[in-house]
């Protein structure tokens, strides 16, 4: 199979690359990282104008109707720029609404989300629940005339800038809870990645705005696409860390030569390239499968998430070594990349969890996306 | 541990074969280190040591 990006996808890549490079220079990134909410309102508005909020959401509901490959292109660039933005969480909420919501609910929630007017984020992980992805313990209690939610969701992305949460319950259901609803308390968590904030969301006798008719099964392909988008972002982190390292290794002199002349450094850089390229191949293989060959998506998405989970922090980690002392300082940006990489590695199933899914799939006789 | 041809080898000994074969793959056609030199110089444009 010959795979390459279309002209339109190349255009998304170059627009995203240039836009993000101009908006998220180091000083701006640090301002946002140091801010109370970690949210960049003006950047969000511009991204919404570019159509990114609904890039892979259906056209009939205000989105651009593009595919998972387009999404991967965008998120690779988001990672490259280390853009602090609720775009990932908003996209995942939008994908879940696309598959699980009624038409009426889509009109009310999905359309404004796709147009960037309203932001949503998934609230999945139970504070007292299992670490197993996509298994939830919060009950969708019934009190006669509707659902009532009680409990704490944690590691909720971008809660400060979200208008509503898509809360998962043990029955596989999803419920729309507005942030301002009575009984909802959002508490920011201290976490390593200052460029993507995590919060806990406490729900006490909360009546959701809406309960989606979709079932747990419906959201599995959404989870897999989220894994691909996150893996794409990690690939972008790795690419940037690699470029920073190669540039530094050519420039920095030691013992009368650029340090990149020494094999301890050059081989490390070569290894970083291998991991970055392999990560990218796995990501685009999975993104392609999501749109063109969904039956091979589970294997392809887990392959991509397993590989990129590792590469996304190993490459920035190696980059810090190449940079020596300067790479270890707060003033150098590399630590932000390492921290995002570590956080991405843990989110939506870590490398070990996804390798187990790969083993399950391979032993069950599944094959990689269209090899021929 | 059992190799190809052994009566009780798992999957006909293919895992064991692949393990040993991969050692040779890391050497023939250019060792890993030589190929990393080439990647560093030709792909990444890093300077030569000499």
User: Number of helical segments of chain A?
Assistant: 11
Number of structural units classed as domains of chain A: 3
- Terminal CA distance of chain B reads 45 Å
Helix content of chain A: 40-55%
What does the overall shape of chain B look like? rod-shaped
End-to-end separation of chain A: 6 Å
Q: Describe it for me?
A:
The complex is a heterodimer of chains A (372) and B (50). Helices cover 51% and strands 13% of the residues of chain A. Chain A is α+β, with helices and mostly antiparallel strands and 372 residues long. Chain A has three domains: 7-114, Butyryl-Coa Dehydrogenase, subunit A, domain 1 (Orthogonal Bundle), CATH 1.10.540.10; 120-214, Butyryl-CoA Dehydrogenase, subunit A, domain 2, CATH 2.40.110; 218-363, Butyryl-CoA Dehydrogenase, subunit A, domain 3. In chain A, the strands form three sheets. In chain A, strands 2, 3, 4, 7 and 8 form a five-stranded antiparallel beta sheet that branches. Chain A has a four-stranded mixed beta sheet with strand order 1-5-6-9, covered by helices on one side. In chain A, strands 10-11 form a two-stranded antiparallel ribbon. The longest helix of chain A has 32 residues, at 220-251. Chain A starts with 6 loop residues before the first helix and ends in a 9-residue tail after the last helix. Chain B has one domain (1-50). Chain B starts with 13 loop residues before the first helix and ends in a 7-residue tail after the last helix. The mean pLDDT of chain B is 91. Classes of the chains: A alpha+beta (372), B mainly alpha (50). The interface between A and B is medium-sized, with 17 and 14 residues.
Structure described in brief:
Chain A is an alpha+beta fold and 372 residues long. Chain A has helices at 7-23, 26-34, 41-49, 68-81, 87-100, 103-114, 220-251, 263-292, 297-323, 334-346, 351-363, and strands at 120-123, 125-126, 141-142, 147-157, 164-168, 174-178, 184-188, 198-206, 210-211, 253-254, 257-258. Chain A starts with 6 loop residues before the first helix and ends in a 9-residue tail after the last helix.
């Amino acid at each position: 199979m010959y795979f390459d990006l279309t002209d339109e996808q190349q255009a998304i890549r170059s627009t995203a690359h240039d836009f993000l490079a101009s908006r998220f220079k180091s000083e701006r990134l640090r301002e946002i990282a140091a801010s109370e909410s970690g949210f960049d309102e003006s950047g969000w508005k511009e991204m919404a104008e570019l159509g990114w909020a609904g890039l892979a959401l259906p056209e009939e509901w205000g989105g651009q109707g593009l595919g998972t490959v387009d999404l991967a292109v965008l998120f690779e660039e988001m990672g490259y720029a280390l853009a602090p933005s609720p775009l990932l969480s908003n996209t995942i909420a939008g994908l879940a609404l696309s598959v699980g919501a009624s038409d009426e609910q889509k009109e009310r929630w999905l359309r404004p989300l796709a147009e960037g007017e309203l932001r949503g984020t998934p609230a999945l992980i139970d504070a007292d629940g299992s670490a197993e992805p996509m298994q939830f313990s919060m009950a969708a209690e019934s009190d006669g005339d509707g659902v009532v939610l009680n409990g704490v969701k944690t590691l909720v992305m971008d809660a400060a800038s979200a208008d509503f949460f898509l809360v998962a319950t043990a029955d596989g259901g999803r419920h729309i809870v507005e942030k301002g609803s009575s009984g909802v308390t959002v508490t920011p968590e201290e976490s390593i990645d200052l460029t993507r904030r995590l919060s806990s969301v406490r729900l006490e006798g909360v009546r959701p705005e809406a309960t989606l008719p979709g079932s747990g099964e419906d959201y599995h392909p959404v989870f897999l696409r989220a894994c691909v988008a996150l893996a794409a972002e990690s690939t972008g982190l790795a690419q940037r860390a690699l470029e920073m390292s190669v540039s530094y290794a050519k420039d920095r002199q030691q013992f009368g030569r650029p340090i990149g002349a020494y094999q301890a450094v050059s081989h490390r850089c070569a290894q970083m390239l291998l991991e970055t390229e392999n990560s990218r191949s796995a990501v685009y293989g999975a993104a392609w499968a999501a749109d063109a060959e969904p039956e091979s998506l589970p294997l392809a998405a887990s392959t991509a998430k397993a590989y990129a989970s590792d590469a996304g922090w190993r490459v920035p980690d190696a980059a810090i070594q190449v940079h020596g002392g300067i790479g270890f300082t707060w003033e150098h940006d590399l630590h932000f990349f390492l921290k995002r990489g570590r956080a991405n590695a843990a989110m939506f199933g870590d490398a070990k969890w996804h390798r187990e899914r790969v083993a399950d799939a391979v032993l069950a006789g599944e094959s990689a996306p269209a090899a021929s | 541990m059992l190799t190809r041809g052994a009566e009780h080898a798992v999957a006909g000994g293919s895992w064991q074969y692949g393990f040993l074969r991969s050692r040779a793959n890391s050497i023939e056609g250019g060792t890993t280190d030589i190929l990393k030199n080439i990647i560093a110089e030709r792909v990444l444009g890093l300077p030569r040591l000499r």
